[in-house]
Amino acid sequence: VQCLEMTTKRKLIGRLVPCRCFRGEEEVISVLDYSHCSLQQVPKEIFSFERTLEELYLDANQIEELPKQLFNCQALKKLSMPDNDLSNLPTAIASLANLKELDISKNGIQEFPDNIKCCKGLSVVEASVNPITKLPDGFTQLLNLTQLFLNDAFLEYLPANFGRLSKLRILELRENHLKTMPKSIHRLTQLERLDLGSNEFSEMVRIHFSYQGYTIGKLRQLRYLDLAKNRIETLDSDVSGCEALEDLLLSSNMLQQLPDSIGMLKKMTTLKVDDNQLTSLPNSIGSLSLLEELDCSCNELESLPPTIGYLHSLRTFAADENFLTELPREIGNCKNVTVMSLRSNKLEFLPDEIGQMTKLRVLNLSDNRLKNLPFTFTKLKDLAALWLSDNQSKALIPLQTEAHPETKQKVLTNYMFPQQPRHDEDYQSDSDSFNPTLWEEQRQQRMTVAFDFEDKKEDEDNSGKVKNKATKTTKKDKCDENTTKKRGRKQQNTTER
């Protein structure tokens, strides 16, 4: 009763529906919420409402077992009991013929009873984070199932007739031990979200979407596909048939190339192919006109296709840890990019067109071979963070004008140029030298980003003053860097002691 009063105060118990009966008026409870009540067993007062109870929430308690009386609540439509200490799901659950939603995630349940097939109305099952090793054949008789979440379990395979669940729209099987999928999987044509990340698939064909003429391209409703952290070496070219696909996550696989057909995914907004073995990106990638996020970090890219300039919707671009020696001039056409990271490449110069990316706010160029920056950087008025070194203590270090020794053109530089290749044995990590509190204080003090550079119309005297000011700033920044390095070495010595 006390817990009942607590949940009433939380305004979650709600929906007290008056009902007139021959014996007079009485209140009928249809929703009960006992979440976060430190319960060790299901409250007995629940059984007083077994005729009318439709939703029961027992989230985040210490309940170890479910009493048989609970399954007399045959009007129950939603049973939610995640984050408890349940070790099994009673066979009595078969009596809940009206059950539509079941949440038993974050427990210790090892298997579903086969007679769960009697819960014909089940539409949503959330059973993630349980040591479930297999699904019973009866599970595939839940023909009204539209959403199934079985992430972070111990599944090694699915029932052969898993494809009978043809109404599935969301299927999440992340972090299991799956090596293949049953051939019947091709029948899941209504899938909108498919998450198979962190499993043990070695190639797309092993997922059997190419069985008897059915390819992954038959999943025309699919909007989200996650195959990250597997062992996939090739991506089926028929993926182009997934015309509704918006998010494609292929991180941490063994891909050596992407098919040209990927450019036909016109609705794509997110493409992640980081941590693979790609040596190039297809020219067709420029056809992804709605792409907002592209991550191709940790590959073996030596160049980027000029067609990247057609990605006018791109907002976030990462190509860290590759072998890029230069950027295509067309990248300047990506004018909506706000965050761009090119850390740990072999860039020796940047194209002037980068000054056209006027919405850039964060740019990471650390660990490259740059000798200076193009003068067009002065147009990047929104730039709030420019990283030129991994152990840089300031997000944006002032730049000053200098004449290029060969071309005599104006360039921007500071004491961090020219960049030198990093030797791992001399490298100080961010944790050794970066002070987040100090950085935040400095960030708040910077209302706008200003570059120290000479105006074309200034006379020689004024020009000299600007140079002196720039020199003073440079010396101050050198002091800041030395202080930061000393702080890093001090922390390192303290750790060693």
From TrEMBL:
Pfam families noted in UniProt: LRR_14, LRR_8
Membrane-spanning residues: none
Gene Ontology CC terms: adherens junction; basolateral plasma membrane; postsynaptic density; postsynaptic membrane
Superkingdom of origin: Eukaryota
Composition bias type Basic and acidic residues, residue spans: 474-484
Disease resistance R13L4/SHOC-2-like LRR domain: residues covered: 214-298
Residue segments, region Disordered: 450-497
Keyword Nucleotide-binding included in the entry's annotation: no
GO term, biological process aspect, one: establishment or maintenance of epithelial cell apical/basal polarity
GO molecular function: protein kinase binding
Keywords from the UniProt entry: Leucine-rich repeat, Repeat
Record-linked SUPFAM superfamilies: L domain-like, RNI-like
Annotated PANTHER family: DISCS LARGE, LEUCINE-RICH REPEAT-CONTAINING PROTEIN 7
Record protein name field: Leucine rich repeat containing 7
Native organism: Neogobius melanostomus
